[in-house]
Amino acid sequence: MRTSIATVCISGTLEEKMHACAEAGFDGIEIFEQDLLVSPMSPEEVRALAARLGLSIDLFQPFRDFDGVTVELFAENLRRAEAKFQLMNRLGVDMILVCSNVATATIDDDDVLAAQLRQLGDLAARYGVKVAYEALAWGKFVNTYRHAQRIVDLANHPNIGTCLDSFHILSRGDDPSGIEDIAAEKIFFVQLADAPVLSMDILSWSRHYRVFPGQGGFDIAAFLVHLTRAGYTGPISLEIFNDVFRQSNVRRTAVDAMRSLQWLENRASHRIEKSLEAPDAEPLPEPHLELEQLPIVEPPHGIDFVEIKTEDSEAISELLSQLGFVFQGQHRRKSVQLWTQSEARVVINGQRARGTAPNISALAFRVDNPDMGYSRALELHAAAVPRHHTPDEAELRAVRAPDGTEVFFAHSDSAQSDDNEGASVPAWTQEFGTASGASSYSTALIAGVDHVNLAQPWQAFDEAVLFYESVLRLDTVPGTEVPSPAGLIRSQVVRTHDGAVRLALNLVPHGLDAEEADLDGTPRNYPEHVAFSTANIIEVARRATAAGMDFLKVPENYYEDLAARFRLTSEELAELKDLNLLYDEDADGAFVHFYTETIGKVFFEVVERRGKYDGYGAPNAPVRLAAQFERSRFRGQR
Ligand SMILES: O=C(O)c1ccc(O)c(O)c1
Ligand SMILES: [Mg+2]
């Protein structure tokens, strides 16, 4: 599949955009006229730069308000078009996008529109230019792809074809399957855009909220399947108008864009493969889009370890020990500690940690084939994390997620070895010596990691969700919004189907990034956490209380509300209150949990899921955030 991207998607000058698109691996670009008009480069220089970068210029756009106009206006429009055709010859681009008239059209007559397009086709042919006619969803008379196609068919000119844009079709709730009925040679160009499901006027939605495929609510993979079945073989181009992307780092956004296309291509290809297995399946036309697949990997089976980076391990290790973790040992070569309890493993990394607030720096995922997972991640343009290891150490490979978290690929089973009690543990744990510590408690009550909550910089939220989905094959579930004293916090869970891996990605309100300072100059940090699972939250909380652990204090008002919402006995309520436990209940079961105080940017949670409860105690999240805000204003200072 040939990939292309409109220059309007990303920030920077035309030159910067072209470099970023080429580096991210795009085959071509659509040049937005505005980008050219303001560029110091001449059309010839742009053409030469594209050639040097190996980029084709696939489309010049847009030409507006051409069709359905009076005779006088039409003559004007033709003159304007001829000037653009001349410019396109200098640029070396042979396709122009003409969007359906949104402003100056006065004639609602398909025959007139077709005749005008036919004349435009004659003029275009003289310059070797082809015209792709696109129905904008808010076009005055032409606003559906079927209508645009009818006019293109009526025009019946070799230089006049259609441009299909997924946004204009799907935003109106139109059925895209009719694409398969369009003659392949009449589909001149294809633009893809996704968008979150919003209820607003289509123009504003289109101009500000489009996102890359896979980041919104449209089924863009199905759209690509229809195009493949139609026999379209031209470029697949991204045209995303998004306020955030246009002010974000250009290289990062270009990579995000490319990853979204690769992920889309992979998903569409698998769908087609599956559909072709049906006994009465229609074969694909020849030729058709060649859709590439990524190496097939299974979603992870669990979290192997969580790494916390801190210069001063004491405060974190004290909390862990109060929660029943055992100090497993010090790494034999590095300033790194391992703390474990059953399947929960926390690595405290003191390397290169000077001056950084304690934070969640890495997550390791247990996968079937770490080498494959890693190379597939690189194929999806994830950045490799350079790591040094000695020949006798396990080779763990990692890539960097958009939020900076290092994502490790660990063996799910093969490289396990037995500890001295006969339990199976990952081979890398041997580098820490064996069970040199002892738990202060007789039995391990924490079983493993239930979920990890990671703060996402606001500009990289959509990118992060797509990263975890495509690189780790996690599924998204409907997102939520949690009110906090620092702002509304968008939360998106990505998880495996079986719940063995659950990440909650939280969009950090503007101004709470580590780098940003409060008005009084104090840096404010939004905390992240690791939630451990237990089957006996009461006992974990009792032990931790006895050990003097700092719990996050829950306000009295909360417990009064609990009593009103749920049928809890007064003994149950008293116990919850006594131990600073929070409670939630739904049709599937109940959820009881508590939080520790925050150290730097990290705190811990312990959760007990009762019955088939599958959520995260969302109604309690505002209580937690407010309590943390009261205590530290997210500064993490105790
Ligand atoms: O919003 C617009 O004007 C506009 C212009 C060109 C396009 O291809 C498009 O989809 C929208
Ligand atoms: Mg478009």
From TrEMBL:
Q: Which InterPro entries match?
A: DSD, Glyas_Bleomycin-R_OHBP_Dase, IolE/XylAMocC-like, VOC_core, Xyl_isomerase-like_sf, Xyl_isomerase-like_TIM-brl
Binding of Mg(2+) occurs at H451, H529, E605
Task: Give the catalytic activity.
Answer: 3-dehydroshikimate = 3,4-dihydroxybenzoate + H2O
One GO term in the molecular function aspect is: 3-dehydroshikimate dehydratase activity
What is this enzyme's class at the first EC digit?
Answer: lyase
Q: In which pathway does it act?
A: Aromatic compound metabolism; 3,4-dihydroxybenzoate biosynthesis
Q: Which UniProt keywords apply?
A: Carbohydrate metabolism, Dioxygenase, Lyase, Metal-binding, Oxidoreductase, Pyruvate
- Cofactor(s) demanded: a divalent metal cation
Q: Where does a divalent metal cation bind?
A: E134, D165, Q191, E239
- Set out the biological process GO terms recorded for this chain's protein: 3,4-dihydroxybenzoate biosynthetic process
Pfam families cross-referenced by the UniProt entry = AP_endonuc_2 (PF01261), Glyoxalase_5 (PF14696)
In this chain the VOC domain maps to 302-412, 448-597
State which Enzyme Commission number(s) the record gives: 4.2.1.118
Function recorded in the entry: Catalyzes the conversion of 3-dehydroshikimate to protocatechuate (3,4-dihydroxybenzoate), a common intermediate of quinate and shikimate degradation pathways.
The entry assigns this protein to a family as follows: Belongs to the bacterial two-domain DSD family.
Cross-referenced HAMAP family, in alphabetical order?
DSD
PANTHER family, per the entry: HYDROXYPYRUVATE ISOMERASE, XYLOSE ISOMERASE-LIKE TIM BARREL DOMAIN-CONTAINING PROTEIN
- Name of this chain's protein: 3-dehydroshikimate dehydratase
